[in-house]
Amino acid sequence: MAIAKKLVNHLGKNKIKYEILCHKIVYTAYDLAQTLKVKLNEIAKTLVVKADKNYVLVVVSANQMLDLGKLKKILKAKKIEIAKENVMQKMFKIKPGTITPFGSLYKLSIYCEKNLTKLKTAILGGGSYKDSVKMKISDFVKLEKPVIGVFGKKR
């Protein structure tokens, strides 16, 4: 499957400039960085996190790990965990690892690691294992209005 049609429509409707990057099938941000010959910090990875009974999207730079403790405080949650893979299939009708960081498409809140907002452009998930979207982080922030916080930690 190519880049998600919903995503293309969403970006087009909001007059966002972006570039579609087609590449070989990859399952990890590390493999994507190797394939595209870019630094890990230029890739935004999207995680689905369950906080108490709600789901949120968390976007961190691929050179960082998610600090669940810090995120838990920001979310003011009692219990927090990275969502199980079957949730992706049931809730979002997508394959694990193909979620895009565009929470408005899924009616989810987005939390974006502050480090990412310092980049001019980043490579974001395009909804498949072989398509990514390169765009200005400022456009992503303007479009999706994520909560920006510090919850990433170095690998």
Spell out the blueprint of helices and strands.
Blueprint: H1 5-13, E1 19-22, H2 29-36, E2 44-51, E3 54-61, E4 64-66, H3 68-75, E5 80-82, H4 85-92, E6 109-113, H5 114-117, E7 121-125, E8 131-136, H6 137-144, E9 147-149, E10 152-154
Parallel strand pairs: 3-6, 6-9
Antiparallel strand pairs: 1-8, 2-3, 2-5, 4-10, 7-8
Notes on the structure:
This protein is an alpha+beta fold. The protein has a single domain (5-154), classed as YbaK protein. Helices cover 29% and strands 31% of the residues. The protein has six helices and ten strands; from the N terminus they run αβαβββαβαβαββαββ. The protein has helices at 5-13, 29-36, 68-75, 85-92, 114-117, 137-144; strands at 19-22, 44-51, 54-61, 64-66, 80-82, 109-113, 121-125, 131-136, 147-149, 152-154. A five-stranded mixed sheet has the order 5-2-3-6-9. A hairpin with a 2-residue loop joins strand 2 (44-51) and strand 3 (54-61). The protein starts with a helix and ends with a strand.
